[in-house]
């Protein structure tokens, strides 16, 4: 297989704090010999495991980048024991444009792993993670939020894995992250996920959803910032005491597809339940108004298909046929 | 002055409930003899004043349209005494595209009043309100929210006017609307506002800001829905008892330009204070990280220029130089 | 008033056949000192009146340009007695892009007369016709068709004018054009039309609609080609015998707005009557299917609002709310 | 091979009439968990063969969708004996935008069969037909027209196949469709066609070209509507008598590439022959005028390369180098 | 007249070096309360005249901005006697996008003076110069180059003015600038130019053309950097000795329109003369090849319409009908 | 492997001069049966080798196309001995749009060899060269320049190859081309290059870089025009004497990656060294100014990483992070 064209401007084997770029050549109309320059910072000090921490897998999710740009400001290398590779914005072209998928090739980075070294831009980035960065890591944290069009209650998550020892290690790390909610996920279709690539490489992997709507709040940023520290403390790479939420985390489960409500109408969403509400099957959760005309016709009503907690909502007030309206999870 | 080219498909003099359109001819490449069709509903029953209620002055603000599409579903004409003209989406082309300004001529409807009958699309809409609809009304309610890029604490507002009798009538109507906050505004530059056009016509006028971010929540929708009823009950057009919030409204004031904090940095916003927080002058309200590179350089810090309550925030996590970061109001 | 920035590369006072351009400076990103170059041909021979013949007033109408590019190929200057100015594509930027309105400023040339010398590109073109070309002419022919989105039965038309002598001269010229249909029009809103500008200048003016759909047929091209000759023969500028259709022209009238049927539904048009069909009030003329879903719900039916002949249809099979579906004229 | 991500919202094994969608997840910037929802209706009653009927393989062809949206309105399930799957718009994203190829990935659905389950949107649609829908069918009808840029005389067609029994069955079904013209086609390059996929699966397959120009006429809609019924009656699935044209169908043949005339000039097309005209080799069929300038230079003339009937024309009056100008078929 | 909405973040009356912005509110879809922030620096020290120095009047011209961003780096306030206002990029939105005209309203800043306070973005910028900045100045320097599509030999210029004393002052200042060429211009159509606005205000005004092609060279940057200093030394505001070119400046004249050669062909330009070449009337200066096809037809040849020096060339190798191909000046 | 869909309109086996097209079918929204028509000319006379000469591999490089469109004008077939295939614009869709990469599929033709017959447009073009044109040739010349964003000193080049006999033949041909500079290249990553495809086919191959910036100069055009002749004379196909530059060619070498300087700052480039300058390691070669604000902060300085000659520069004055700023070569 062809070499990946990315070259880092830092030396992963060197001790200390290094700031630089992953340089990915990108020849195009406005720059014959141009490049995508993905920021990267490494902390390396003493012997210890390697953690790889990322945000911006989708370019419109912000708690992760804020926590990681902050983390890169650290100068206290003496508090580290091992190596931490920080990439606040994996899909940097999408992050720069504030878009979910790459503005260049329209690919969703989190559906194309393991990628290809001779593919389009996003595929090349995936390949560099698959064949260069992930193999260097013992612990991998990928911070997601809902993006511009979805909003989640803040949770860290781990997956049900065949290797129960690995599963337990992941679950422990996810709980150590210290979000208000914890979710154990059974992915129905894990093909192409970064999660799957990392887990199949035998790493301790944690993912999150920490809010959404293309914005952040002080409390969701705080969850991300302390979660990053907690994760590294748990991994034994960072010195310090974990900082946990005041109340115990709530455990969630999405056992089947009835958790997902998709709209079959286009129009204006009137939400009838709020995030975190407990609903009963058959309760009205939203009404969708046709915007074409005013009339005496009532809007379409959507009913909860199950009991549970509303953990996700559609953010834009205009919805299209096929969009996810809400997700309802079981509280364990 | 030339006639306005808009023709309504309903008869404003007719009793009963009518649903129809304001038909604005719009010749363009994909329809030589096409039109913009702005939905309108009228309730007319018995003798009484006329109320004109609008949303979608900016196309990405949703509490107003939801309340008004719902209102148009009513069939209880016997509860009305007078006339109510309901236009849920004034700038309908913007509303359809979920944009603040018109996608056709890029104009901000709320800065071009009184408009022109021979101007571009948005100017023609403004002229139809200025010369046809507003003159028909006694009470005018225009429901705003922050749109996709701003978010406000929910308030109704009236302006300081030269005619103190009119000012008192407006203030009473704004308070009757029943939002959690009330703001008395002194507009520094009122040129081009719908508000100014309506007030100069001598009408009782109420405006609002009820949330933002291009989305809504059950509690903000509820403020709008009950506010619409409360406004009409106050005007004596609708029968019923007003439905008010449980706690007394908080009164706000923005006495000078120090209330507005504008960003002089482009980058990733880390919010340090939440909406409704009381801050002290000099307190850090936000940090802005450059996204180009990770480094040990600290982000730019923005400090509160005055004591007060955070009543507005920039929604997108990426900010540009010149964007409004926050607004801090005085609590009266 | 400022001088119009257009300079012709031909000399309107010179005898003979000249081919050139109307040169309109147009500074833009891809050409700092660029220009729009509108093709023009002039035939001048002996003494006689001046005719101005145009097509491409809307850029997606083609019978006129085909007839006039052909006419410009003529080399028989000896058959002329007077002057003929031929501009096959008035709104040349639109014609080049095959669009109805100008791709530069999105203006509909035929709604902005008399134009402005310091306006945007289309306004400058209008001003050049208003202040330079039309004043030079005695006879003016402007050939229209329906464009990409409308289709008409082929007719020549003249307007009802205050000056009955001028009206009769126009009617005679329109009938001399020799189209299968003749329409006498009373424009409800004549503001901004080229027609109005020309007629108010006291010229003999003929307009046409010769087909549409962004295409042509041999028989519609033939109507235009012989119509151009017939018009000039009628004006006494060209030698020869007029070539008329085999059957007598049908006279049409559109006495009021009930002739126009506008769609209040978006969807897929199923036409139920053909162009030239005679319909009775209440007859189904079209059905509009919602495309969002298949269902057992019948499509919306549109009924003829009057008796008459179907003289215009909406061409694209997908229709939007507000589009013109059909026009039904009275046969006189 | 990976599972196709499409899930139908109807149950293909259930009796009765069902309306629903083929739900294809489509994560994108404006909807993280969005979907393409392709309308589908199924009629199932008693024992009998399965017919799969489609339109909108290209998104700008309309006789098929009109006939099939109408067909889906039927409520007379008792007239069916077997199963009919109706998909009026195969390439639904293209159909919604009125484009030939998909607006998402710019792919021509009819050149990429059998598709891929992990490809781009159009490839996934093709795969769902190849591996799920076509295997369920015995009879397959795919209704085409010329689209916005081509126009055909209305014909049904079948291909020359290696399996002569299958070929005869297809020809019989095509003739049973009842269009004014029948064409037996020998595809030179059948790679990627839906036709080829279906025929290689051993199904009875009929295709059509029923008009074009991005519009329809009452008589072409009528051919499609009765053709759909005729096809199902022929298949023994629908009760009733076939409704055939008044005159016998004309048989056509395109024996070699001399039937296709491609333009080597860009400009304005002046058509010299009409659809259905019989032409002789060497006859002028079109003239192409350069639009850049008017001049005494004659336009380029295109001559018929063979005797035959004009069965296809280029619709837009502006043509580019390389566009198909006309097709001339032999009348058998 | 309405107040201009721009507010400076610096105080023009304050001594010392200040860096800031001209803040122009700009409400749009991606920022409801956003702004254009035009960088500005002021040096003020002691008593003396005021100089206003600008670049980026067109956004794709770079010698001026480079010289002025450099100038703003100065910290030697003690060398100043008076006030210098430095705005490296007048049309900042165009400069950011590397376009000649504004990407917002497509206006050419240098054709719309004096502007309007209630116009579109570029008109508001013009108005701020006309009514606020220019009145503060005694000496005004506006540095131009040819932009992406034109290229000039480097010259400073002054205009022929009615006020001969002012004309002499301008000529002296232009010659003091110290470019290799000096041009005395008689503008045929000066309407809308910044030059005209400034000169009519009675100021000493110098303009330049220093290269082009959207790029710079060390020697053209050097002309601009030393020219800025020379200009201020000449004005008595800056201490120091002027730095002049090694050879005496060449004086140029463009007496009439025969100096401008416009293309009447679209295609590929083959330049036959170089910048600075002396040509004779009738000499081949360029050949234009049609790119549509290769053939034995020779390209169109363009001949010099006069004797003189080639002082301007069309940069892009593809040319359009109407583009300026070359300018030929007389050497005085 | 599937047949390539391109069909030439000329016969490569026929003697004489033929002008025609490579016809590549391209079905798209604006032409269902359209095509890309790539101009091609062939000279064939007597027995002799075949030369394939191309330009426009990147669509914004012009010395090659100018030389080859000129070459195609020749009518002196008697001066040829063998066959010359001339394709002035390999990536014709890019050349028409003046873009480096294809406007259709955004592919860089020179990175995707050998291409695919069933791929996207650019891949199909590559495949036609790989499997049809290159196999016909003995000598292959591909003329490049720097394009819109890079600028090179004019050189011809050959590669270091495993087959030393072939290497010597290529070097001799490159030197025979007669450019002012000659470069012997060791490609680090030759995957996907046309060069590699041709060399691996055993042909005598020469490439060039003759300028750049999206424009040409008389002297760079002259290098290309005489180079084409010189190349064919060297190959023994064309009669005549080579025309060489007045001074001996300078030999260049780029031994390692230190030759390439990439920008890590976005902003305005101030070039400090000119093309062809000899620089010393550590010398300032450019300064990059941030454009967001004026300030007393000095711009970023870039230093020469090695001694050598500046042979390449970034053309646009605005630079992005990751763009190539300069190339410094060793003079042998």
From TrEMBL, chains A, B, C, D, E, F:
Q: Where's the Succinylglutamate desuccinylase/Aspartoacylase catalytic domain?
A: 47-234
Which keywords accompany this UniProt record?
Hydrolase, Metal-binding, Zinc
Q: Which cofactor does it need?
A: Zn(2+)
* Record has Signal as a keyword: no
GO terms for MF:
hydrolase activity, acting on carbon-nitrogen (but not peptide) bonds, in linear amides; hydrolase activity, acting on ester bonds; metal ion binding
- UniProt keyword annotation of Plastid present: no
Q: Which NCBIfam families match?
A: ectoine_eutE
Give the protein name, as stated in the record.
N-alpha-acetyl-L-2,4-diaminobutyrate deacetylase
């Amino acid at each position: 297989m062809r070499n990946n064209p990315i070259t880092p401007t830092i030396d992963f084997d060197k001790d200390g704090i290094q700031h630089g770029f992953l340089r990915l050549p990108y020849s195009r109309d406005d720059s014959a010999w141009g490049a995508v320059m993905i920021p990267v910072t490494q902390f390396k000090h003493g012997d210890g495991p390697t953690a790889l921490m990322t945000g911006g897998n989708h370019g419109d999710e912000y708690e992760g980048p804020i926590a990681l740009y902050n983390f890169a400001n650290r100068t206290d290398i003496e508090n580290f024991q091992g190596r931490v590779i920080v990439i606040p914005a994996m899909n940097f072209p999408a992050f720069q444009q504030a878009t979910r998928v790459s503005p260049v090739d329209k690919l969703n980075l989190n559906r194309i792993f393991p990628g290809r070294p001779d593919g389009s831009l996003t595929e090349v980035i995936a390949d560099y993670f698959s064949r260069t960065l992930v193999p260097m890591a013992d612990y991998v944290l990928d911070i997601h939020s809902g993006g511009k069009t979805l909003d989640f209650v803040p949770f860290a998550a781990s997956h049900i894995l065949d290797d129960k020892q690995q599963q337990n290690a992941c679950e422990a790390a996810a709980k150590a992250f210290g979000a208000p909610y914890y979710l154990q996920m059974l992915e129905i279709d894990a093909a192409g996920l970064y999660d799957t690539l990392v887990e199949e490489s035998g790493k301790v992997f944690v993912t999150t959803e920490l809010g959404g709507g293309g914005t952040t709040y002080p409390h969701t940023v705080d969850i991300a910032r302390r979660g990053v520290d907690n994760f590294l403390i748990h991994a034994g790479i960072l010195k310090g005491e974990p900082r946990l939420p005041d109340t115990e985390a709530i455990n969630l489960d999405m056992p089947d597809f009835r958790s997902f409500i998709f709209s079959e109408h286009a129009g204006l969403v009137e939400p009838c339940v709020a995030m975190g509400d407990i609903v009963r099957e058959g309760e009205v959760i939203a009404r969708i108004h046709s915007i074409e005309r005013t009339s005496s016709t009532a809007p379409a009503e959507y009913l909860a298909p199950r009991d549970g907690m509303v953990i996700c909502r559609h953010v834009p007030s205009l919805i299209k046929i096929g969009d996810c309206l809400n997700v309802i999870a079981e509280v364990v």
